[in-house]
Amino acid sequence: MHTQDIPGELLRYFEASNIALALADVSDDNPLLLVNQRFRTLTGYTDEEVIGRNCRLLQRDAENRQARAKIRSFLEGGRQASVRTPIVNFRKDGEPFVNLLYMSKLTALSGEVRFLFASQFDVSRSQPELLSAYDAELGKTLSRLGPTLAESGIVIEGSLMTIANTVATVAQAKLTLADLDAPGFP
């Protein structure tokens, strides 16, 4: 799949978004098709370095057992429409951060999953008010994305309930952050 297969409305939406977004293909190893400027700023990677590769490149050799299990379940299971989990990622320069990853499936009206939609947020050093602002922006993004995608016959799966579970997710992110700050972590 190539960029020309992505609906124009979605391309425009990605670049205008105030939060880090990525779009992946649903085939084989879920290669990235599109990232926006906020994603590039967050990770330090250019389009040329990430497009066509699986987003797991951001994990390097971090274990991320729980997060990987949640993501695998989301990708393999037909019933789970979205997932949100903290996961240790690394910027291009090697600096680790805890990414509060949100993923959802973009589905054609026929029921076929067309794309994987993801949003990333660095919870490692953020203040709680920034996370609240991000959650509000992600909620707006999902609400606005629905009508934008509908023009192309695509539906975003999942709901804002995944976002509503922020308290538990942030608690998990803080535990992950404590591990990240522990002596001996690269």
TrEMBL record:
Family matches, as InterPro entries: PAS (IPR000014), PAS-like_dom_sf (IPR035965)
Database matches in SUPFAM superfamilies: PYP-like sensor domain (PAS domain)
Superkingdom assignment: Bacteria
Domain PAS: 26-78
Assigned keywords, A-Z: Chromophore, Flavoprotein, FMN
Coiled coil: none
Keyword Flavoprotein: yes
This protein's record includes keyword Ribonucleoprotein: no
Name of the featured protein: PAS domain S-box-containing protein
